[in-house]
Amino acid sequence: MAFNELTDGLSEPVRKAWERSLTSGRAALSRRTVLRAAALTAGAGSLAACGIPPARSTDGTGESTANAAEDLSDSEKEVNFSNWPLYVDTDENDTEKHGTLEAFTAATGIKVKYTEDVNDNVEFFGKVKPQLAAGQDTGRDLMVLTDWMAARLIRFGWAQKLNPANLTTAITNVESRFRAPDWDPGRLYSYPWAGIQVVIAYNKKATKGKEVTSVSQLLEDPDLKGRVTFLSEMRDSIGITLLDMGKDPAKFTADDYGAAIARLQKAVDSKQIRRFTGNDYGQELSSGDIAACVAWGGDLIQLRADNPDIEFVIPEKGFVTSTDNLLVPAKAQHKTNAEKLIDFYYQPKIAAQLTAGIGFVSAVTGVKEELATLAPDSAANPLVVPTPEMAAKAHVFRSLTETEESDFEEKFSKLIGA
């Protein structure tokens, strides 16, 4: 489905936000550079605009009674798994081999058909939406989607409720801060695959050794004037600004949002902020063309490896985080096998192997101890394994209603000149 078809019927601010994300934001980047975690969610109107009605509840529980198929897991020892490129551990000498997936097959006898076909959330949604809306099998038993898109599938009855009897390891080992997102309280439909962090970065050569430690400093320090960038993803820039203002991104009001916009607008008008960027801030930060910025943690691992002058800081008032999540889509034919695969990845040793391979935050308790033996550098990197103090400062951006989405994106678009 073409981009215009996917966004037909959306308000203009939301349509522009989707386009930004696909062309210059996280959704446009390679997985090795930074996690594709576009932070834009459209409501039911976008589905209706494509002629696809949301699934209807028929059993009084709030979920569709038509989303399950006959589970063939007992007779067919296989699972079809769709994921993002470069988002599982890979053998250095053979890119077709994935140690954790092979270990799962060895342990269970279940073969994994692994496909790297989630290139971005919007594009993948276009692939599976026709089958899901028609009540048909997508050919996939397990898929990995960013929190806002995972929320959408759950909301429309296109994800199956998971059987806790098959997830005893996951239930035990999922870290507490990942247990109850507002879009899936109690993790009834999803489990985290990996997380991303939004932090502050600076080039200490460009700042002449001066530390940059807060959003307030980014917005007000005259030594940084004209050499600061924020991100063009609304939730990331607004979320970290709200935190600096003492507001929780998970609980903010419309007035709080307006105050954050006004604060950023003041910095734009004074030319303190040079611009709002997608992934292109990395090159400018490395060269020293900008001195400091709001950055994605996944970028900084490689940027710091290439340039020792780059530093990152977790603001005292906190940072924004989001997740990619495992879900079983409606009509999947091997649901139990998929649940066993989810559960398998919540073993600390397996989670450590995955984390060492992809370099993103794990949601599994005990992964640090295993990682310390397997990949000490990764275990010591707070961008991969946040310290308890750092984890305590992590905040999520709350889900938005369709009306909020349109209103907030319109205000943000005006701010960044999009």
Can you walk me through this structure?
Strand 1, helix 4 (99-108) and strand 2 (111-115) form a beta-alpha-beta unit. The chain has 18 helices and 10 strands. Strands 1, 2, 3, 4, 5, 6, 7, 8, 9 and 10 form a 10-stranded mixed β-sheet that branches. The chain is an alpha/beta fold. Helix 2 (12-23) packs across helix 18 (402-416), helix 10 packs parallel to helix 18 and helix 14 (348-358) crosses helix 15.
Give the arrangement of secondary structure elements.
Elements: H1 3-7, H2 12-23, H3 44-49, E1 78-82, H4 99-108, E2 111-115, H5 121-133, E3 142-146, H6 147-155, H7 168-173, E4 190-203, H8 215-220, E5 228-231, H9 234-244, H10 254-269, E6 273-277, H11 281-287, E7 292-296, H12 297-306, E8 310-313, E9 319-327, H13 335-344, H14 348-358, H15 367-374, H16 376-379, H17 388-391, E10 394-395, H18 402-416
Parallel strand pairs: 1-2, 1-3, 5-6, 5-7, 9-10
Antiparallel strand pairs: 3-9, 4-7, 4-8, 4-9
In short:
This protein has 418 residues and is of the alpha/beta class. The chain has helices at residues 3-7, 12-23, 44-49, 99-108, 121-133, 147-155, 168-173, 215-220, 234-244, 254-269, 281-287, 297-306, 335-344, 348-358, 367-374, 376-379, 388-391, 402-416; strands spanning 78-82, 111-115, 142-146, 190-203, 228-231, 273-277, 292-296, 310-313, 319-327, 394-395.
Provide the β-strand percentage band: 5-15%
Query: What low-confidence regions span 5 or more consecutive residues with pLDDT below 50?
Result: 27-65
Please trace the helix and strand order, writing H or E for each element.
Answer: HHHEHEHEHHEHEHHEHEHEEHHHHHEH
Helix content: 25-40%
Structural class: alpha/beta
- Broad shape: globular
Straight-line N-to-C gap? 24 Å
The quaternary organization reads as single chain
User: What is the mean predicted local confidence, pLDDT?
Assistant: 86
Count of alpha and pi helical runs: 18
What's the β-strand tally? Answer: 10
The biggest sheet amounts to:
10 strands, mixed
Gyration radius (Cα, Å) is 21 Å
